[in-house]
Write a structure and sequence with these properties.
CATH topology of the largest domain: TIM Barrel
Number of strands: 27
Largest sheet: 10 strands, mixed
CATH class of the largest domain: Alpha Beta
Low-confidence stretches: none
Mean pLDDT: 98
CATH superfamily of the largest domain: Glycosidases
Shape: globular
Bound molecules: alpha-D-galactopyranose
Helix content: 25-40%
Radius of gyration: 26 Å
CATH architecture of the largest domain: Alpha-Beta Barrel
């Protein structure tokens, strides 16, 4: 570990059955030896609470703690994460283990951070068992206060679903056709909260026993089941597991996007890349290996996007078990001849040179408005089109800005948005009054807004906002949407811009009546021929641009370029295509990250002198040379 420059390791994540081999019988001796050894070697511990995989004795004694799917199938022990999130048995056993661990290691010098659970919800994001049913009822009682309130919120007069007592209410189990959408949405909220309560139980113990020790739990990027806005507010440090697929050419962009989300979840604070693989994973159909330089590139990318730590799953490649074909820092074969090991050692040496970057932050002028609840509601079935998928919509915006090297934050629509000059709303199907007003205020006071179709359609109960689509944004956009005309797979529609430019639209089209907005582009050739497709409206001191279709990538890039220009948003650097440029700053210091995602070498123009921290070389205004998948971290100026 010293050779590889390791100074923090996650320990004991799946060790419950070793730490507590029988109920209440704790054995810490082996872990004491590990932590003592780490400490002697100058390595700190991100000590796991070990609750992600309950020991066989627990579920054997309490089978009622096992999770059950919507169609009644029980998930049995024998892999990991086999617990119902609402199970009092699981929660109290977890709390007892954490109490014992925290008490035992409170004063251990290697204890640097707590790693609570592991990838909450990764395999079991929700449970439909009887215990969950009761917990769901309690959650609903708390939310609605009365059965009448619930009936109103769920619109239960539809299809004769009116409830007369709480006992009648179930989680949305397998039904003949669509379960009540408001019920499904509440169940998603409840399920995210149920896991958050598991986390909170452990956090409560840790904060009491070791109040000074920071706490994290590892996130998984844009993980749909958990509302990470709520979760991140309860963490001291945001951490993230990143497994981009080397076989997918969009992976570099997606990893950057997840990194930006992590920075945003922590309100700009530095985060930690908790897990990535050195070479290959084991859980895809085909586990394509990272190309030469890709592990280094993606590690530096995480730092560029705000990480202050880069870690891996796993240290030593296992000999047995389900993950023995997953790469590690120390491979099965001899380290002397392993390119993976040599890459790991080199990376460790390089990262050590970035000490000065730690604690620095990035400032974005652009925010993508992103809300888990809206994501959940959007992707419930029975819509005008099931082809509107949240992540595709987000990526359509993000990819263009990534290519243009414009830094983007993610923000909850109800947040204070006053720091942003450009707001992007890929889709906000569900919106509350407060969030809709916050967006309106931001535009009125000068921001530019780019909003896509099918936003502002329902309220938090998943009821249509009456008064014309998109009801909360009609005045802001200066238009009414009369009705939707979704496009089928493979169908697209021509777009004609006022300046003569042309483009194509996919997924969606709609019939718009203008009410003050000007037309930037019309549909052309379809039965909406000549009707508005892209509009612009002045609202207060700001501008609201509306997209009634999903423009092709080139058109999207052009629109974003126009929006950036009108909002005076600039790129981090003028880098050639395929080169990612991001800046982190602290006080008067600034660090420019240049990351070449291409296999071929490239020269990047820079205008300031500085030092490339990656290799210690001096750089001068002119061209910086980046080799195949090469990186530079330029400490600018000082
Ligand atoms: C996740 C888990 C790890 C391991 C890796 C494999 O990140 O946290 O325990 O299973 O996936 O890629």
């Amino acid at each position: 570990m010293r050779e590889a420059g390791v100074n923090l390791v996650s320990v004991g994540i799946f060790s419950w059955s070793r730490l507590e081999p029988a109920e209440g019988n704790f054995e810490f001796g082996w872990l004491d030896r590990v932590l003592d050894l780490l400490h002697k070697g100058g390595v700190d511990a991100d000590l796991a609470t070990a609750t992600a995989s309950p020991p066989p004795w627990l579920s054997h004694r309490h089978p009622e703690m096992l999770p059950v799917l919507a169609d009644g199938v029980t998930l049995w022990p024998g892999s990991r994460q086999h617990y119902c999130p609402s199970s009092p048995v699981y929660r109290s056993a977890a709390a007892r283990l954490v109490e014992a661990l925290a008490t035992h290691y409170a004063d251990h010098p290697s204890l640097n951070m707590w790693h609570v659970g592991n990838e909450y919800g990764c395999h079991v994001p929700a449970c439909w068992c009887d215990v969950s049913a009761q917990a769901f009822r309690d959650w609903l009682l708390h939310r609605y206060g009365s059965i009448d309130g619930l009936n109103e919120a769920w619109g239960t007069d539809f299809w004769s679903q009116r409830y007369s007592s709480w006992e009648e209410i179930l989680p949305p189990r397998r039904t003949p056709t669509w379960p009540n959408p408001s019920q499904q949405l509440d169940f998603m909220r409840f399920s995210s909260d149920a896991l958050l309560e598991c986390y909170e139980v452990e956090r409560g113990v840790l904060k009491r026993v070791t109040p000074e020790v920071p706490i994290t739990t590892n996130f998984m990027g844009f993980f749909k089941p958990l509302d990470y806005w709520k979760w991140a507010a309860r963490e001291d440090v945001v951490s993230h597991d990143s497994y981009p697929d080397p076989a997918d050419e969009r992976s570099g962009m997606r990893a950057a996007m997840a990194g930006d989300l992590m920075r945003s979840l922590g309100q700009g604070r530095p985060w930690i890349l908790m897990e990535q693989t050195t070479h290959r994973v084991n859980w895809r159909d085909v586990n394509v290996a990272k190309a030469p330089g890709q592990m280094r590139l993606w590690s530096f990318q995480a730092v560029a996007r705000g990480a202050d730590g880069v870690m891996f799953f796993q240290w030593r490649q296992a000999r047995a078990g389900a993950e023995k074909h997953h790469s590690a820092m120390v491979p099965h074969g001899p380290v002397e001849t392993s390119p993976t090991w040599s890459d790991v050692v080199t990376l460790g040496r390089e990262l050590a040179r970035l000490e000065a970057v730690c604690g620095s932050r990035s400032t974005a002028d652009v925010a993508v408005l992103f809300d888990w609840e809206s994501w959940w509601a959007l992707e419930l079935p029975s819509k005008p089109s099931n082809r509107v998928r949240m992540m595709e919509q987000v990526e359509a915006y993000y990819a263009a800005l990534f290519e243009a090297n414009v830094l983007v934050d993610f923000a909850h629509p109800g947040d204070d948005l006053s720091g942003y000059r450009l707001l992007l709303m890929p889709n906000l199907y569900l919106v509350g009054d407060g969030a809709a007003a916050a967006v309106g205020r931001a535009v009125e006071s000068g921001a530019t807004l780019l909003m896509s179709f099918f936003s502002g359609i329902v309220d938090p109960a998943e009821h249509i906002r009456l008064g014309g689509y998109p009801q909360p944004f009609r005045a802001l956009l200066g238009l009414d949407v009369v009705d939707f005309h979704p496009l089928s797979a493979g169908e697209d529609v021509a777009l004609q811009f006022a300046d003569g430019a042309q483009g194509r639209g996919e997924i969606w089209s709609e019939d718009i009546r203008l009410n003050g907005a000007e037309v930037l582009a019309t549909f052309s050739g379809s039965h909406l021929d000549g009707r508005p497709a892209i509009t612009r409206h002045r609202a207060g001191n700001g501008t609201a641009i509306y997209l009634a279709t999903q423009p092709d990538p080139k058109t999207m890039a052009r629109l974003l370029e126009m929006a950036c220009a009108s909002a005076s948003v600039e790129a981090s650097a003028d880098a050639p295509s395929g080169v990612e440029a991001v800046r982190r700053t602290a006080g008067g210091k600034s660090f420019l990250f240049l990351l070449n995602h291409r296999e071929v070498a490239v020269d990047v123009p820079i205008s300031t002198a500085g030092v490339n921290l990656a290799d210690g070389s001096s750089v001068h205004p002119g061209l910086v040379h980046l080799g195949s998948r090469g990186v530079a971290v330029i400490r600018e100026g000082w």
